[in-house]
Amino acid sequence: MIARICWIISQSGANTIVFLVKLAFVNPQIVFPLSTLAPLIPAFVWIGVASLGFVGATGLRGVTPGRWICRIRVVRTTLRPCGVARALHRELLLWFDIPLLITAIPGVLCQLVTVNRQRIGDRLADTIVIEAFETTTSRGADLESNPAN
Question: How far is residue 88's CA from residue 124's CA, in Å, rounded to a whole number?
């Protein structure tokens, strides 16, 4: 249940993109004049900023809000932070894992046959998803190690 909620949180921007793609390409007879597209510009800006934020958070810290809730993290296969370039590569390859976000069969099949349960984007970006462990200590543990405080 929690994994499904995390996936929904991480895919919220992608669902907006799918809606806009369907709106623009499903009915080719519809012509959008610039005045009709103007109200969508803030949505495109929001999607771009949110996507860059998620890619940056994944690259630098390995977590997004959904991954943080699920206590998972994205790292390189060497267990070092994946970096922004690999995170961007990984997220762009989501379109191959879930073609046009219609079916998840390619990504699921790839996860079933790989040792580290990597999806296509993970394999090509050399990343894995791991459980995040708490790296900070509590205040009490700090006091025990340094009684002078």
Answer: 12
Calpha distance 76→111 (Å, rounded): 16
Strand runs labelled E in the chain: 72-76, 127-131
CB proximity list for 134: less than 8 A, separation 6 or greater: none
Among all chains, which residue has been given the structure tokens 């998972």? 72
Can you give the residue range of the structural domain that contains 92?
2-145
Largest CA distance in the chain: 76
Instruction: Name 103's bridge partners.
Output: none
CB count in 10 Å sphere of residue 137: 10
Residue reference for tokens 């462990």: 133
Residues 31-86 have pLDDT tens digits of: 556 666 777 788 888 888 888 898 999 999 999 888 889 999 999 999 999 999 99
Please state the domain count of the chain: 1
Q: What is the DSSP letter of 131?
A: E
Report the distance separating Cα 43 and Cα 15, nearest Å: 12
Helix or strand run (H / E) with residue 33 = none
